[in-house]
Amino acid sequence: MAAAKKSVTKETGHGQEKASGADSPPEFTREQELRALRDMLLIRRFEEKAGQLYGMGAIGGFCHLYIGQEAIVVGMQMALKQGDQVITGYRDHGHMLACGMEAKGVMAELTGRRGGYSKGKGGSMHMFSKEKNFFGGHGIVGAQVSLGTGLAFANRYRGNDFVSLAYFGDGASNQGQVYESFNMAELWKLPVVYIIENNRYAMGTSVSRSSAQTDFSRRGISFNIPGEQIDGMDVRAVKAAGDRAVAWCRAGKGPFILEMQTYRYRGHSMSDPAKYRTREEVDKVRHDQDPIEQVRNRLLADKVSEQELKAIDAEVREIVNASAEFAQSDPEPDPSELYTDVYR
Amino acid sequence: MPIQVLMPALSPTMEKGNLSKWLKKEGEAIKSGDVIAEIETDKATMEVEATDEGTLGKILIPEGTADVAVNTPIATILSDGESADDLGKAPAPAKQEKAAEPAPPAEANASASGGGEEKKAPAAPQTVSQPDPEVPEGTEMVTMTIREALRDAMAEEMRRDPDVFVMGEEVAEYQGAYKVTQGLLQEFGAKRVIDTPITEHGFAGIGVGAAMAGLKPIVEFMTFNFAMQAMDQIINSAAKTLYMSGGQMGCSIVFRGPNGAAARVGAQHSQDYSAWYSQVPGLKVVAPFSAADYKGLLKAAIRDPNPVIFLEHEMLYGHSGEIPKLDDFVIPIGKARIVRSGGHVTIVSWSHGMTYALKAADELAKEGIEAEVIDLRTLRPMDTDTIIASVKKTGRAVAVEEGWQQNGVGAEIAARIMQHAFDYLDAPVARVSGKDVPMPYAANLEKLALPSVAEVVAAAKAVCYR
Q1: Does any domain span residue A57?
Q2: If you measure CA to CA, which chain B residue comes closest to A123?
Q3: Partner residue facing A60 (CB), from B12, B201, B213
Q4: Position A209 in a domain
């Protein structure tokens, strides 16, 4: 994974319109670095705890961890304004935390308790927050792409300048409805940023074994949608790309594709055979490109004290531990909830 | 205090596994996220990651140990400043189920929350259906086609609520493949009457997404046969989201279009989806027969906060009927209508099936059998009360549908009658349905594949033992 940043230029009848920005990511202010560190750490510690609770049998069914990919949601969130919408697939805990949803409510949903975001009826893949403009949590690979395009449709219909972010993976990128959505989004100039989180594996199938065109930023070419390949392990690069893409959408120019090159450290889900890639490959990415270590090292180089970083660590651990505590002590939903929320 | 690392479960059903390998040695420093061991079952291998920082104090289960029960302590981690002397003090971690009883998590959770015993599911709520609105004496009746009634219903709702819009193939400039949306583009403009590309899965998803954001889309399928492409968005996204979000987010959306067999269009364009959609909780399913019901129920569907499947019938679009000229003629979803009263046999149908039912009732009357004909109008929620009340009176019932018999709506009607009115039945419930074949093209075969008036008459006579 090179520190990629390649853009697909947009061919129009009136010559080329280049949508990309600078070549190396602009520096963050210290405040931005600290925020990015804290938000990424929260996701990582949360996911580690979720993995632990799963191992203890407190979380059932599916549990897809986001560890390794934290820079994407944190960087993108920094490019949004209040009112912009987010939607994603099943690897969604990081997105929810980045949107500002409470760790407590997310963890309690994982354990199927009444204080969970969906009252325990949704589970890992199905949580929503109207308040935080988070539209799920979807378990059918690729479905969120059409739905996210619909969110953008609603923005356009209402004439506001909000943008929707539709996240999906390299695996979902091969679903037909993705391209049906691309077509209509460009046709109707809908303000949606398609964020392809390319973590190199769709479950256990590597990109090269599943995709004829492995440069996902080019997947919009036949619809005239511009795209960029971004180093998704560098939160600064993500944020800068997010700024460009969101500005493009807000200006009414239609959709934009960002391929975020990233890596998931853990298995696809909790019962992953780990036979399709080597431990050396995983270790190398963790060692060389970890998004959190990158920020931590920059902060240390900038003379932020170990002490200050430890304090952030402690604050995050506290939130995560409290969420785990709540998620295990909160009661299960009342049996009377079985038949509620089918209709309104 | 030292922290215990427990044998993790790879899946909710795993009870034990093998500790195949230790990747860290006693005394080695550990950071959060480090892989410290590998475990495996017959199905998979998993890495055990440390979630705490410190030093690996003691390995309690050596590598190569088989059948280690889930939640058995396998090692201890010493925090900063602790030494091997502290090892004896390792507390049980936050929550530890007893390893010897690796109960499935759902039950384990139940005991953790104080209600271990298997609870009986509460009774399903009963739906209460509202009666049709009063039409005041002397109200002017207007005769119009079902096609026009549908158009008027949409136009009225679009005038009433700016969040309502129509999208689908050929709904705007072409004026509707079956001319149902005629004139809407002219009145409401291209912003609210939207021609889509031929891309059912995609535009159904966009419609549902727009509905999640609060708009009220009317998504027209040129026919419901094409909605098969969009089935995932209709079922998984539209029908289930309200429940999956704990009531936080739902969608007010209507999927409408012709359903069932037209004439001579072959197997792929002739399927009746009544049974498919009406099986799904979270959806409402409406399939009217009369012009007035088409208008009043479509208006109700558009206003409904839930996803509604509105099944029309191409063979009925040109039929005319009388509609009361009222400012706001809305018929509540969920109520059947007794179209013809009679005391000898109950015939239940809906949509185009009603044409066979009503003609059969005329034939039967000539032979002295008075049939009570019920137009279900709504398939979900089904108005069981009206059916049961009638069957208690007649003691005999025939269900008529154009769809296939296996797992059909007729089968559901028969089951409900058996459940609620068994003691009143004088004969087994009969079903008349489409034949168990893909729709043939040849005119004679197609006729045979569909229900007929003669079949309904025969079934009614059979249950009357005549």
Answers
A1: yes
A2: B244
A3: B12
A4: yes
ipTM score of complex? 0.93
Q: How far is CA A308 from the centre of its chain?
A: 27
Task: State the number of CA atoms in the 13 A half-sphere of B201 facing the CB.
Answer: 18
State how many domains chain A has: 1
Q: Which chain A residues touch B226 with a CB distance below 8 Å? A: none
Based on the number of CB atoms within 10 Å of its own CB, is A216 exposed (0-12), middle (13-18) or buried (19 or more)? buried
Q: What percent of chain A has pLDDT over 70?
A: 93
The confidence score (pLDDT) of residue B104 equals 41
Give the domain extent around A288: 6-22+29-327
pLDDT in tens, B139-188: 999 999 999 999 999 999 999 999 999 999 999 999 999 999 999 999 99
Between B296 and B38, residue with greater pLDDT: B296
**Phi, then psi, of B350 in degrees rounded to 5:** -165, 165
Binary contact (A270, B46; C-beta < 8 A) = yes
Which positions ≥6 away from A211 have C-beta within 8 Å? A170, A173, A174
**Pairwise CB contact (< 8 Å): B108 & A58:** yes
Is A339 contained in some domain?
A: no
Neighbours of B367 (CB within 10 A): 11
CATH number of the structural domain spanning residue A246: 3.40.50.970
A335 within a domain of the structure (yes/no): no
B200 is catalytic: yes
B251 neighbors B283 (Cβ within 8 angstroms): no
Distance CA B63, CA B46 (A): 14
Q: Which of A55, A183, A344 sits opposite B306 (nearest CB)?
A: A344
Among A54, A111, A154, the residue with its CB nearest the CB of B109 is A111
Is B13 an 8 Å CB contact of chain A?
A: no
Residue A101 predicted with pLDDT over 70: yes
Degrees (nearest 5) of the Cα angle A266, A87, A315?
55
Inter-chain CB proximity B49 and A148 less than 8 Å? no
pLDDT in tens, B373-397: 999 999 999 999 999 999 999 999 9
